From TrEMBL:
<keyword id="KW-0963">Cytoplasm</keyword>
<dbReference type="InterPro" id="IPR051476">
    <property type="entry name" value="Bac_ResReg_Asp_Phosphatase"/>
</dbReference>
<dbReference type="InterPro" id="IPR011990">
    <property type="entry name" value="TPR-like_helical_dom_sf"/>
</dbReference>
<keyword id="KW-0677">Repeat</keyword>
<keyword id="KW-0802">TPR repeat</keyword>
<dbReference type="InterPro" id="IPR019734">
    <property type="entry name" value="TPR_rpt"/>
</dbReference>
<protein>
    <recommendedName>
        <fullName>Tetratricopeptide repeat protein 29</fullName>
    </recommendedName>
</protein>
<dbReference type="Pfam" id="PF13181">
    <property type="entry name" value="TPR_8"/>
</dbReference>
<comment type="function">
    <text>Axonemal protein which is implicated in axonemal and/or peri-axonemal structure assembly and regulates flagellum assembly and beating and therefore sperm motility.</text>
</comment>
Length: 456
């Protein structure tokens, strides 16, 4: 039998049992010997060599996603593994479908975000364990926590996915009086509203409302679920009515806005009630029912005045003024808007005062009452200067300038059309000083004589 040449082996420190020299046996013999003593060698290495186990070595080589998936399978969470794997595939599919340059393409994939993988691992496995035990309320809570984890613009599709899971689970919970189901309906309404499915959103919000009637359930801010349901319904009904108005379905829009007003009142929010009354009154006006529109708009005026809501008050008064003008009731409109001015001054609402004076100024300007328009625009400009809004100051300044020009234009036109000596003197006097148009010829002549006698 051929033998390999002897090999001198240096003895490592700390291992005195190794010999200085050894002769390697034949290859076949050595292989059999190693296989026979493998268990003993592994046992020796485990006891005396502090290294990595196979699992630890694999954990270092594998990706974070792979390690989480392996751990799920080892612990028997096959459903969680399948769900996680499906979500990762869906994320990648959405990214590929959007293509380079899209917002999702610039984001990291789900498997490259360890913090999100940790959240998914933690709550998915807890939900699966709770489901096996039949604890559906705990399943719901874990799914809801996952939805909250992805409540950002990047992971909104994941949030929606877990809201849908919550909705399915909530149907199985029978021990909380319907609280989880109500919450799930609210979340599903939100998803559909964001996606533009207004009718479907309204259905979910209506179910949410029905489940909360008479309940004392509150959210984390202390607000009752019922008032929250009323707000959702007020908002969604208003959106529905707006879409109806786009296709001229005025009567359907009115019916929908009546329901919106009912929800706003029941919700106990005066701001909502004022907005609902304003929208309903405006819709009656669009439908040609001005006699019904004005009292409802007056209701919104009272609410906005009580709330010191300058913007809302201005919109309501403007709507009423337009209705009265469309009916040819100019004098009544002016009287009404003057009341608006008084109410704004009494409540110290500078914004509303600006709105009222601008409305009155425009009304007078359109009908050729330039002196009155000038006065109203002057007041609007003065009120705007008390507010810290440069665009508003610029706007009222423009109105003021236009009204002043119109006021001067009347006098200029009258003197130009007269074309007599006195009128020419008026015009020449005005051209010299560019001030307001003079109205007293004697004053003009006196000023000229005084200037001639006192050249300095």
């Amino acid at each position: 039998m051929n033998m390999l040449p002897p090999v001198i082996v240096q003895r490592p420190h700390g291992h005195p049992t190794f010999t200085e020299q050894t002769v390697c046996p034949a290859l076949d013999f050595a292989r059999v010997h190693l296989i026979k003593d493998k268990d003993g060698i592994d046992d020796y290495l485990a006891k005396n060599i502090k290294g990595l186990s196979k699992q630890e070595a694999a954990a270092c080589r594998n990706s974070y996603k792979k390690n989480i998936c392996i751990d799920m399978l080892r612990q028997g969470y096959h459903k969680s593994f399948s769900e996680l794997f499906t979500l990762i595939q869906k994320w990648n599919a959405l990214r590929e479908a959007a293509g380079p340059g899209s917002a999702i393409w610039q984001q990291k994939s789900l498997e490259e975000q360890p913090d999100k993988l940790d959240q998914l691992y933690h709550f998915l496995t807890r939900a699966e364990a709770a489901q096996r035990a039949g604890h559906y309320e705990e399943v719901y809570n874990n799914q809801l926590n996952l939805a909250y984890c992805f409540n950002d613009s990047e992971g909104k599709w994941l949030r929606n996915y877990f809201y849908e899971q919550c909705f399915n689970t909530a149907q199985l919970i029978k021990i909380d009086g319907g609280k989880k189901e109500a919450q799930a309906h609210a979340n599903m309404g939100l998803i559909n509203e964001e996606q533009g499915n207004i009718m479907k959103a309204a259905e979910h919000y209506e179910a949410f409302y029905e489940l909360t009637v008479g309940s004392t359930w509150k959210d984390e801010t202390g607000r009752t679920y019922n008032s929250l349901a009323c707000e959702h319904l007020w908002k969604i009904y208003t959106v529905l009515a707006d879409k109806m108005l786009e296709v001229k379905e005025h009567q359907q829009a009115i019916k929908t806005l009546i329901k919106a007003l009912k929800m706003a009142k029941e919700g106990g929010d005066m701001k909502m009630e004022g907005e609902a009354a304003y929208c309903l009154g405006l819709t009656y006006h669009f439908a040609g029912e001005e006699q019904t529109a004005i009292p409802i708009l007056n209701t919104s005026v009272k609410i906005f005045t009580a709330l010191c809501d300058s913007a809302g008050l201005g919109r309501a008064y403007e709507a009423i003024a337009k209705i009265l003008v469309s009916q040819g009731k100019v004098a009544e409109t002016v009287t009404y808007l003057e009341e608006f001015v008084k109410a704004a001054e009494n409540a110290h609402l500078s914004g509303s005062l600006v709105d009222a004076c601008v409305l009155l100024g425009n009304l007078c300007n359109e009908r050729g009452y330039y002196n009155e328009a000038f006065e109203y625009f002057s007041r609007a400009f003065e009120a705007a200067n008390t507010l810290s809004s440069l665009p508003l100051v610029d706007e009222t300044k423009t109105y003021y300038g236009i009204a002043r020009a119109h006021k001067m234009m009347v006098a200029v036109n009258n003197h130009t059309e007269a074309a007599d000596l006195v009128s020419m003197k008026y015009l020449l006097a005005w051209k010299e000083n560019r001030s307001d148009m003079c109205t007293d010829l004697l004053t003009v002549e006196l000023n000229k004589e005084t200037s001639a006698s006192n050249p300095l």
